[in-house]
Amino acid sequence: MGSASVPVMNRAADRLELAADPVRRTGRILLSAGVEQSYVDVEDPRHLHFEYVRRIASAVELAAPPGAPLSVLHLGGGALTLPRWLAATRPGSPQRVVERDPAVVELVAQELPPLPPEVRVEVADARDALTATPTGQYDLVIADIYRAARMPGHVRTVEFAAEVARTLRPDGSYLVNVTDLPPLVGTRVQVATLRAVFADVCVLGDRRMLRGRRYGNLVLAATSRPGGLPVGRLAVAALRDPVPGGLLHAAALDTFVAGAHPVTDADDPRRR
Asked: What's the CATH code, domain 44-271?
C-alpha cells in the first residue's frame, strides 16, 4: 500500500515508521522494514482494517455478553489496535500488553492517541512474561508475536501453550494470529500443538487461505473446555466479514491437520 509519512523517531527510522493511510485520512499504518504490522484509526478505535484482526475481534465479541468487561493478556502489541478497540467496545476491561521491542512501544506512545488507564503496556519477552503470570488470571490471551515475519520458536511449542492454558480462567480462550503460505505446514503444526493442550480448537480464515491457495493470516481459537468454542456463531461471523471466511473444526480440522505433529521445546535446538 502506498503511504505518506508522518513524523518518525530518528533512531528507529531505518526500520520503524508510522505512515498515513492515503485512502482513510485518520488511518495510521505501523511499518517495520516496510512491512505492514498494525493499523489504527486515530479517531475511531472501533475501525478494524485488517481481515485477521476482525476475525480475532469476532471471537472476542462472542466471549462474553456485549459490553461486559474482559480481562485480557495481549502477547505482541504493535500499534495496540485490539487493546484500543476492546477498551472502546468493553469499557473497564483490564488489559495487559506485552511487547518485546521498546522502539515500537516508544514510537506508538509518542505518535498515537493515549491509551485508557486500564490498558497497561510492558516491554518484555512474551514467554518470560507468561511464565511469571499467576494461574487463572485472564478471560482471553491473544497472541500476535512475530520477528522478521516469523513466529519465534519458543512461543509455538506445547510448553508455551500449556503456560497459556494455565493463565486462563476455566472458560477462557486463546486466540493466535498465524501468518502462513501454501501448503500451510506451519499452521497445521500449530493446530496439532494447540490440540495437545486444549480440548477444543478451530481455525478461522479466508476460504482461499484455508484451501492453501494464497499467503496470508489465519486465526486459531482454543479453549480448555470440551465443546467450549461457539463454532456456529464464529462461522456466521466469518461469513459476514467484508472478506467472507470459513471455519475448520472437528472432523474438518482432523483432515486439515492429518500428519502434522505437535512441536515441543526439545524440537528447538536453541533450547536444548
From this structure: 3.40.50.150
